[in-house]
Amino acid sequence: MKTNLASLLDYYYESMYPELKALEEKRQSIVATLKKAAFILLVIATILFLFLTKNAILIPLNALMVSGMGAFLIFMFIYRHESAGYGSLFKDQVIEKIIHFLDASLIYDKTGSMSEHEYQQSELFLESYDRFSGHDLISGKIEGVDVRFCDLHVEKKVRTKNNNEEWHDIFTGLFFMADFNKTFHSKVVVLPDVAERSLGVLGSWMQGMNVQRGELIKLDHVEFEKLFVVYGSDQIESRYILSHAFMEKIVQFRTKIGKPLYLSFVDSKIFLALNYTKPLFEPILSRSLLEFNYIKDYFELLAMIVSIVNEFKLNEKLWSKR
Predict the structure, then answer these.
(1) Burial class of residue 201 in the structure, from the number of CB atoms within 10 Å of its CB (0-12 exposed, 13-18 middle, 19+ buried)
(2) Nearest Cα to 288, choosing from 17, 78, 97?
(3) pTM to 2 decimals?
(4) pLDDT for 135-191, tens place per residue?
(5) CB 308 within 8 A of CB 314
(6) In whole angstroms, what separates CA 52 from the centre of its chain?
């Protein structure tokens, strides 16, 4: 696996840059079209606003909402239409190439996703959901360990007090699964510690009452206990899986990424979820593809993900079969 930035720089100019120049022209064309569309829609919205108010058809506030919302919806339709093809080409020429640069054996499927069964198997998020979608599935072996990960979005439909429908996120971000090639029989779930950090002793008591999760596991690592709450079905095996050295690695990884981290150990697999608030592998139309720093951001994200195997030493037989 290559994670060297200097090697990426060479690869970028030798293997990616010639094709990216053509894609950059397409990006500039799309941006120009969107600017033109925005200008025309602004003029139309202004004329419509003046017509509605001058003829007393609507009060100014309602006229502003009608003209503004109409222009916005039309612009979003144009934006999605124009950027759809570019997004697909971007993934072919940027994301897939970076993945193959990191590890040529990995398989990238831009429309593929982890399955709902895998999501449910993890037991990381027990809340029922109404919409499940994912994309940018990457699978294969890293250091001999089977891995699968993708960008996942899971939502629930709720009714507001005004009886309107709204979609609330249950999880959005990176969902990762790896095979340990080792056997353990219990389940362990590691979640961000929100209750105890916010409510102190009361929060700790509430965590102990969460019978849906199983037994509360208290561990002897101070920093780990500050960051996470752990539930398991077997006190002894939970401590066996979460050894002091392994908790140390989890704390270091959590500190490095700076994002909410969820982990579970089920059926001899590790599941990991990282909460991101935006799609991970989508292009940013406002940034030029000919800026290396832009490509570097995607490289660092993907390098961080594929390094999870090494970070947690999943390729080492830390836990032999018992």
Answers:
(1) exposed
(2) 17
(3) 0.80
(4) 999 999 888 888 999 999 999 999 887 888 889 999 999 999 998 766 778 899 999
(5) yes
(6) 44
